[in-house]
What does this fold into?
Amino acid sequence: MKSQNPFVVATLTFLIFAAFFFVVRFWSGLPADIQNFLCKPEDCTVQGWASASAGWVGFIAALIGAWLVFGQLKEQQKQTAFLTGDGTPTLESVRAGQAETSGRLRVINWNRRTLVFRSFDLSSEKSLPGLKAVRFLGNVDGAVLDWTIPVTSGRLEMSPALHGWIDRNKPPIFYDLEPIFAEDTHELVKASRQMRARVTVTVRFPGTNGESLLSIEPTLAEIFSNRIVDEMYHTHLRDR
It folds into this structure.
């Protein structure tokens, strides 16, 4: 159950009772034609209103209960999908070192099936240099992988694969992605390090229809890697 559900139930209950109190309290001040339209004069009593509203209160309570059950079912479906190996891959922003500009983009495959990368897109409010390639770094079965794949109009010229999470006794497999530009980005990050950018990575599970979009909006400082920490980062990958 979602954390805001108790608040929603309490709010709806309060609104129902507030509406009922408002009608009863200010009924005598309403115009006669409105009173006659809402109910017959002989039936306009507290007992009559309570009896007439009982069915509506029950109907509203049933809707609230159905909505809560539906939310629980959705959460249960997500948990079941994760346990059976049908989890959704995630795109995160991580740091490879203590420096502020040591950011990397990490794609984690929480699914049991292998996923394939198709495209990489980066946009920002400020004009960015042309994207030249994307560097893929990871550790698969003890082997450190370091691939640099050219990008043409956001499309990767090769489609690297990220193995599925089969052995649940081990951490899921991931790739760290580093965009490589045709121009130096040091001055850009220095001047606009807190500016937000939108990164979209397109992946696909072989044997399935359609592609999935993984998106994140980090700052520019969280995207551009600091070359100084590269050697330390490779050492970390080898030691995993």
